[in-house]
Write a structure and sequence with these properties.
The chain is of the alpha/beta class. It has two domains: 137 residues, Rossmann fold (3-Layer(aba) Sandwich); 147 residues, Dihydrodipicolinate Reductase, domain 2 (2-Layer Sandwich). The strands form two sheets. The protein has an eight-stranded mixed sheet with strand order 8-9-10-7-11-12-13-14, covered by helices on one side. A six-stranded parallel sheet has the order 3-2-1-4-5-6, with helices on both faces. Helix 4 links the parallel strand 5 and strand 6. The longest helix has 18 residues. It starts with a strand and ends in a 7-residue tail after the last helix. 38% of the residues are buried.
């Protein structure tokens, strides 16, 4: 049983708290601490065992950082130096340099560091990867990621950094962690379309937006033999289209992406304590790639809304 602290308990930190409370009921987590400078946030964290305005006196095996993104890298470095294992919500840093500094700090101090690219842990991903590796889809031709949210953007946020990074990371992950070769972007900080070109002529399209008319959350993988589509809100199945027929394929994994991500990190800490090798997902290299191509996408943005 491990002790977990959440630094920052706003909208997304509260989601972490709900998952941790379920894991506490299972006996996986012993104690949950919430650290937030906001009294309102602390008052809302009724599922926590302890709420505090600072880290003074906090005992934890893992700290989850769910604060504003511009604080992630500095807070992660500070907490790692104090001896905590850390799970940081994306992005790890606003620049590749900042992200690399956190990774090197974790290596220097022998602490586990993971980043919240949670769609890697979506129940459909293992199924999709199996279909790709066994040739069921044929030669991959294109991938499409759509995440259009009706939510209003937070002050100063950029839709590429907030949402687009998930598409960038997921497409690279599905292609076997392949690095893109080129990028082009249409849009602005509210709505963007990103085109990633990969080796062998594979194209990835990422369509993200705030203030959308309706919620859209889908991933499409197009192969020479078949097409596969899944809804990011559906954790149970994917749809395969082949030879004019439609098939529903069931996912084996049933945890939500966030719960699977947290369980993965807690497993890592248990393995660390026992001296057992643990395969990190995402790897540090993938984390840096995500920051790097997010930077490239933002730099390539013409600030003209796509039509």
């Amino acid at each position: 049983m491990l002790n977990v602290a959440i630094l920052g308990c706003g909208r997304w930190g509260s989601n972490h708290l709900k998952v941790l409370a379920r894991l506490r009921e299972e006996g996986i987590v012993r104690k949950i601490s919430v650290i937030d400078t906001s009294q309102d946030a602390r008052d809302r964290a009724v599922l926590a065992d302890i709420t505090k305005s600072s880290f003074d006196g906090v005992t934890a095996d893992l700290v989850i950082i769910a604060t504003p993104s511009d604080l992630h890298s500095s807070q992660a470095v500070e907490l790692i130096q104090k001896g905590y294992h850390v799970l940081v919500e994306k992005p790890l840093g606003n620049t590749e340099f900042d992200a690399a500094a956190v990774i090197s700090t974790a290596q220097e101090h022998g602490r586990l560091l993971s980043v919240g690219l949670l769609l890697r842990h979506h129940p459909a991903i293992r199924l999709v990867q199996n279909l790709i590796s066994t040739g069921k889809l044929g030669r991959l031709e294109s991938l499409r990621f759509v995440r259009r949210s009706t939510r209003q953007p937070s002050h100063g946020s950029n839709v590429i950094e907030s949402i687009g990074v998930h598409g960038i990371d997921l497409l690279c992950h599905l292609l076997g962690e392949v690095e893109p070769s080129a990028i082009s972007v249409e849009g602005d900080e509210i709505e963007s379309r990103i085109v990633l070109e990969y080796p062998h002529g594979i194209e990835g399209l990422i369509d993200v937006a705030w203030n959308a008319n309706k919620e859209k959350r889908s991933v499409t993988v197009m192969g020479s033999n078949a097409k596969l589509i899944f809804d990011l809100n559906n954790h149970n199945s994917v749809t395969l289209y082949r030879d004019g027929n439609e098939y529903t394929l069931q996912c084996d994994d049933k945890y939500s992406p966030l719960e699977a991500e947290i369980r993965h990190m807690l497993d890592g800490i248990s393995a660390f304590n026992q001296g057992i090798k643990w395969i990190q997902n995402p790897s540090h290299g993938a984390v840096l790639r995500g920051v790097r191509w997010t930077e490239k996408a933002i730099a390539a943005t013409p600030h003209v809304r796509p039509h």
